[in-house]
């Protein structure tokens, strides 16, 4: 049988790269995209099993091309909308309009475009996982309300879309990571954030990208065959 194919946006580093590696180990063929880091993307590529396409997750022509490339590997049965940006830390009163537009484009429009093209390819059913954030529940005050709001939109999308496509045999779920050890915090200007705040979680530490990837792979798998519309916290109880 032909191995199922998974499409992942933002797959070159952090949680995305962990998902790519975990999926390949679980028997998926993987097509992922990335926006900048050629070396990191190349390090993940395995000819015939893992392919990478450089481009913007908010560009529909690119997303369509990513699914075309994925379909060349086999039947697309899974998709993960992982690409996301925080837009940096700051208060709403100081928010730059261009930053807001970019956060919404990647985090919200990008998720919709991934889902749109996944649904069109999943004629025999499949599973879509959207990467949300605990920030959607916590609000992001004094840090990134704009980011939190974009992930709130992802949560709403998860619930609505799961109901819209359930009879097509497509499940739609989300994971909501909490404090996870990736470079997204340094990119937002706070490299010490996970160490400082991780100790305050009930579990007492920040999580790892691999722990998030494990949750994503479970939602993609047949073990979660009766789960749709769920938003799974991966947050150490935070």
In CATH, the architecture is 3-Layer(aba) Sandwich
CATH topology: Rossmann fold
Sheet of most strands: 7 strands, parallel
Question: Beta-strand percentage?
Answer: 15-25%
Structural class label: alpha/beta
Q: What is the global morphology?
A: globular
Number of domains: 1
Annotation, overall tally of beta strands: 7
Provide a count of the helices.
Answer: 9
- Give, in spatial order, the strands making up the sheet with the most strands: 3-2-1-4-5-6-7
Average pLDDT for all residues: 94
Q: Give the low-confidence spans.
A: none
- The CATH class, by name, is Alpha Beta
The CATH H-level superfamily is NAD(P)-binding Rossmann-like Domain
Order of helices and strands: EHEHEHEHEHHEHHHE
Estimated radius of gyration: 17 Å
Beginning-to-end CA distance, first to last residue: 42 Å
Please estimate the helix content. Answer: 40-55%
Short description:
The protein has 238 residues and is of the alpha/beta class.
